[in-house]
Write a structure and sequence with these properties.
Elements (H helix, E strand, L loop, with lengths): L2 H17 L12 H7 L2 H10 L1 H19 L1 H65 L4 E11 L2 E10 L5 E11 L17 E7 L4 E6 L3 H10 L22 E9 L5 E11 L4 E4 L7 E2 L1
Length: 291
């Protein structure tokens, strides 16, 4: 029971005690000997046997029992009022707890929302920092060591792709072709790359991979001739706007990705020098570049 209910019950008992004209914790204003003078002998013997203290307690319990019996309806009403007060207090407390629980649930939702926002911001910050790092330490692919090959009257051109950057590069595809221009042709506005060939190989920093390009059979005879197999060097075809010592061009386009998924490209254009047997780069912004 609540404190208020106990106080109501205590006040009710006190009022009943006052109405009865005696103190609730008091004892009848007469001694055991005086009671024995008015009662029968058997009661006096019981009182003598029990002693004065037990006799007083017995009389007090009888006195209280008499009060309860005389005012039983009032005590029932008083107890009902106390129970009603307790029930009301309990209802108020339960309602308050319910409101508090709703408030805590709302606060929890708000905390979760703020936590999600903070997590997203942290993730975006980490992604930005990661992209900035790989942008500053990006991979870089270059083409080196281009050479001509002959095998059983088949001619091809071999080259190597090196990763000279600071992070891995995933080669997505490679387009390459050999161009044998006539004497009247210049570099085209759109490079005549060959079909795109999927690769899917990752090169770490410092690693390399080799590729061999073999032109179709209908080009083999002319390519072997221009590469100097079975002919004199002074028979080389010339090309306008290029060096006048060869008409064999190897051009290619490499598409690759860094570790954050950024697509990058490397293009190359090399001209065969019959005097040195090497392929030299042609510095043209549409043909030879690294993004």
């Amino acid at each position: 029971m609540t404190r208020r209910a106990w106080l109501m019950l205590a006040w009710g008992i006190l009022i009943l005690t006052i109405i009865d004209g005696t103190n609730f914790f008091g004892i009848p204003p007469y001694s055991v000997n005086e009671i024995c003078q008015s009662d029968n002998k058997t009661d006096c013997e019981k009182e003598s046997f029990n002693g004065p203290v037990l006799s007083v307690l017995t009389k007090s319990f009888d006195f209280i029992d008499g009060i309860v019996r005389r005012h039983e309806p009032f005590l029932i009403v008083l107890s009902s009022v106390a129970i009603a007060i307790f029930t009301g207090t309990l209802w108020r407390a339960t309602t308050g707890l319910q409101a508090l629980a709703v408030k805590q649930a709302e606060d929890m939702k708000e905390s979760l929302r703020v936590a999600n926002i903070a997590a997203e911001a942290a993730k975006e910050s980490a992604d930005t920092a990661r992209k900035e790092f790989f942008s500053a330490h990006r991979p870089r692919l270059i083409v080196r060591q281009i050479s001509r090959l002959e095998d059983k009257n088949m001619y091809g051109i071999q080259y190597f792709i090196y990763n000279v950057g600071d992070s891995p590069a995933k080669i997505v595809s490679v387009s390459e072709s050999v161009w044998l221009p006539t004497q009247t042709e210049n570099l085209r506005a759109i490079p005549p790359y060959g079909p795109s060939i999927p690769v899917g190989k990752t090169l770490k920093s410092g690693q390399w991979m080799g590729r061999l390009h073999v032109p179709p059979p209908d080009m083999q005879g002319q390519l072997g001739f221009l590469l100097g197999y079975g002919r004199a060097r002074n028979q080389v075809v010339t090309l306008n706007s290029l060096d006048d010592n060869s008409g064999v061009l190897l051009l290619g386009f490499i598409e690759y990705e860094d570790q954050v998924g950024t697509t990058r490209n490397t293009a190359f254009l090399r001209q065969f020098d019959s005097k040195t047997g090497r392929f030299n780069p042609i510095n043209h912004p549409d043909y030879e570049y690294q993004d």
